[in-house]
Amino acid sequence: MTTLIVATGNPGKLKEMQQYLQDTDWDLQLKPADLEVDETGTTFAENARLKAVTVAKATGQWAIADDSGLAVDALDGRPGIYSARYGASDGDRIQRLLGELKDCRDRQAQFICAIALANPQGAIVLDVQGCCPGQILHQPQGDGGFGYDPIFWVEAEEKTFAEMSPERKKACSHRGLAFKELLPKLAEIEP
Ligand code: ITT
């Protein structure tokens, strides 16, 4: 089996990425904890590529990275690529977002996820993106998942991400949809 470094330091993301990659022929390994990547890109896709390339070059292994976030219509797409930098903890980030939206009636938002795969030489081999529309609730609901999950309500499921089973979140989420596109392409790669 060929090693694939999962290039994230976010435990919630890591759990989902491991779940989505579990039936592949890759030997998943964690990114070295001290290997940090500056997210200097201006789009989700650029940041995902930057993380995958940097980790692949530093480790000399294949690397897969995810850059994701929440784009809220009434906030002109914020926090967007700054979703992780919106506060010090998940709770702080949620409170800041709810504070900025106040009682705004337009609660429409999109969760976006870009995934990039780099080979050991640091060249991008795959690049996909998934998007999930939803509504921002006025207060958190549910205690599963991670990050902004408790305030992101998906109409088709009548649940927040935090109230869904991992399987349901996989079926409709930005990350699940990105992986749905990625997995058949990943299966064709002969490392
Ligand atoms: P890595 O860069 O190390 O992967 P990160 O947390 O910095 O970890 P991002 O820069 O991609 O990752 O930031 C994503 C932000 O959006 C972060 O605050 C996440 O908690 C949040 N996020 C992404 N996907 C999410 C999901 O499925 N549910 C809830 N929050 C999510």
Report what the structure shows.
With 191 residues, this protein is α/β, with parallel strands linked by helices. It has a single domain (2-187), classed as Maf protein. It has 5 helices and 7 strands. Strands 2-1-3-4-5-6-7 form a 7-stranded mixed β-sheet. Helix 1 packs across helix 5 and helix 4 crosses helix 5 (174-187). The radius of gyration is 16 Å and the shape is globular. Inosine 5'-triphosphate (ITT) is lined by residues 8-10, 13, 39, 66-69, 83-84, 93, 145-149, 161, 173, 175.
Q: Which helices and strands, and how do they pair?
A:
Elements: E1 2-6, H1 11-21, E2 26-30, H2 44-59, E3 62-72, H3 90-101, E4 108-118, E5 124-136, E6 152-154, E7 159-160, H4 166-172, H5 174-187
Parallel strand pairs: 1-2, 1-3
Antiparallel strand pairs: 3-4, 4-5, 5-6, 6-7
Helix pairs in contact: 1-5, 4-5
Key features?
Maf protein; 5 helices; 7 strands; 26% strand; binds inosine 5'-triphosphate
